[in-house]
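Protocol step 4 of 6: record predicted structures for both targets in the notebook before any analysis. Target 1:
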Amino acid sequence: MSKAVDALRFALITFVVGGCMRRVQDEKENKFPKKFSFIVHTERSREAHSWQEQIVHAIVQQLQEARTVNETLLRDLVRRSYDDLAESVQLVDCYLPSYEETFAAVSSHLEIIMITKVNSENDIKQLLDESGQLRLRTPLNIFIGGQILDRGLTIANLIGFYYGRTTNRFQQDTVLQHSRMYGTRPIEDLSVTRFHTAAGIYNVMETIHEFDEALRKAFEAGGHNAGVVFLRKDDANRIVPCSPNKILLSSTTTLRPGKRLLPIGFQTAHKNEVTPRLAKIERILSDCKNDIEAGHAFLLEADVAKAIIDLVGETLEFEEEGSGWDVSAFKSAIDYLSRSISVQERKGKLWCIVKRDRNINRMRPGGRVQNAPDTQTGAGYDFVA
């Protein structure tokens, strides 16, 4: 037997076993047993869906026949899934059906499994119930389809997923919508929920999870107060956060090697406003006087650098169209890059170099505002993480 068929068979049996365990639990609590659903989503083409439907029908039919022809094989298959599910059910404060209870329920439910192919709008209209969800016609329902199952449909009591949509580049938000494994569900249902996919897709989803965890930690640390969220790509360039047209470009800041976030097209404020702020900056940098006079770069704590940025920002005025400086993005970039440094003694710090007594024209030849202060004689404070 092909490994792919064995994997699909295990996924289907695990769904049946999990659904039966939950129905036994409901009966123990004198509840009306719920109906459950399973999705097979690996291809977009209708031809592939028809072939998958044939395979699933064949697997279910052989399981039905095994009840009388080869019960030992059926028991072994059910045992494998039962042992897997029992580990997570035991973590929940609910009744764990015995293997014999579960096997009896599986045997009685094999004849009432509904397999439905969903791959056109007409199919959807016929399959929706009065609440707009896919109708669960029997206790155990298997839906096979592609793009229509991606999003926009609510499928109740979804506890099984067989997902295999692969591509050269994975768009993070699309992958999460395709897989359909997210959303609130009772803890009892969660204990028997399983997601089956290929190793490569699993690795992609693990990386997506790491991205989301890093973003969550940034919010918990208060990074959202800066108004900037960093969307990352993986090193292999296989995962992108989402399509650019889903985000207002005015709300994003892109960082790439060699890019600078500079104030452009500014005038300095009145001398009475500038002088006291420059004096504060000089006091902050007084401990670095020797490095400054020698023209050397020196390490500075990120919080100190941000304090200097705030003071510098208060000395600049922007009036012309196309000019400005996103101070929040600049400070967020400092936080992000200084935390990303792998060398422990440099973590939370960045390099600073101070250049004095320089003169630079506001306008470049041709009438454009100056946007490259490091290519001519200019004055200021440069920060490099």
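Target 2:
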Amino acid sequence: MFACIFVPDFVLQASLWAEPEAERAELRKSPVVILDGPASVPRIIALNLAARSAGLELAMTKAQAETWANVSLRKRCEADEEKAQSALLECAAEFSPRVESTSPGTVIFDLTGTERLLGPPERVAVKIKVRVYKLGFDAQIALAANPDAALHAARGFSGITIIPAGREAARLGQLPLDVLPISQEMLDVLHSWGIHTFSTFAALEPVAITERLGQEGLHLQKLARGETSRPLRPLEVAADFVENFEFDDPVETLESLTFILNRLIQQLCTRLAEHSLATNELRLILELEVRQLRSEEDQEHYEHTWKLPFPVQDGKVLVRLVYLDLEAKTFSAPVRKLSVQVVPVKPQVVQGGLFTPPSPEAQQLEITLARIRGLVGTADAGGVNCAGSPQVFDSHKPDSFNLQAFSTNAESAEMLPAPVVVLRRFRPARETSVELSGQKPHFVAFRKRYLRVLSASGPWRSSGQWWDANTVWARQEWDVALKTAEGIGYYRLFFDEIGRRWFVEGVFD
């Protein structure tokens, strides 16, 4: 069996499909027409039932249509039609791996071998109808033993049509000839003979048809009889996970922006789930309505990329990350257009244990880090990230590290034995004054008191970046034992030879 999805008035439905669901329902109740053609004289190329009931007709000019009250005039958008066609192809791909994009608004797919998985044809047809309706289209569904019979039944009959094998000619016989892919010239010839339906055309002698209409007429007669058999031209569904939206009026509030972002991200996550995929990278591009740059800080667009340490399919997590970032941003102009893109990857499978308590969700960690970045910023004055996993630089400079994004793919390192002594660093190091006895520290000013040095080890000298005057460093380190009110405390001091200052770097535990 082959199934066909046909969307009547596809140009109109594709235009309405691009709107939010609530607005789409209201637009269907009111007269809506689609205009196309030269800018000087655009004409109606599609209209809904409410517009037809109001008296509007195809080929009317824009000026004529404007004489009707409460009529929504919309310009044809080929980008919306392409996105709607892609959505239909993805919908068909849920039922079969062999899908053909027959024409705009028409999709045919092979159901051979899916009986045990999907059930009998009647149940399959209902599932297809429900899925297409949830997608946002009012479509006609037909199942037949060959692709062309399914195509003509879907175009000619409303609702659901199922044609058993061998019953094609009888079931298609009542359809008018204009359902066939026939030229207007040949259609006029057949009408002049008194031929108006499939059944009357199929009853003619094939030899007489060939003599008068040639091979094209013979092929059309086979289509009317439902006797053709052809292979599908499968189309690989493009895995382009990008959603765009352009506002009619640029928006300035975060609520208006996140309302659309939530819908686009949820659509992307639904498509990822339909393809058994997830994402670990989200890219957002905002185009601003900047008519004239007043300063160098003004930008015409904003772009940000989130790289997650784990693949996700939950749109709520992605929406929350975007919201926390935009909440901390201030734009110099309203947003005119936005684009959201996700990078598809295979989902991560985690095997849980029967007796292992559930660990905190990794998604919550990423949201918590986003909140921390919103409070403390992404990087400090020195360019070091403020939140993440520590990464040690390839340098001998003490306390030289950066913070990078967390990753769940890091290889497990061998457990090292716990150190006997641990240095707890002060960040930042506390500046102090030191009294020397010869070359060694003798008294240290610490916590508003002068503490005597009982013992001192050092100095250990180190330096680096001598070739760059901005980052050169040199220091002397001392490990000292100080007599405090609580007892003996062990501390590390260092002398900054560039700034000629003493610091208490940390305490040994």
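Step 5 preliminary note on target 2. The mean pLDDT is 83. The CA atoms of residues 481 and 487 lie 10 Å apart.
Proceed to step 6 after PI sign-off.
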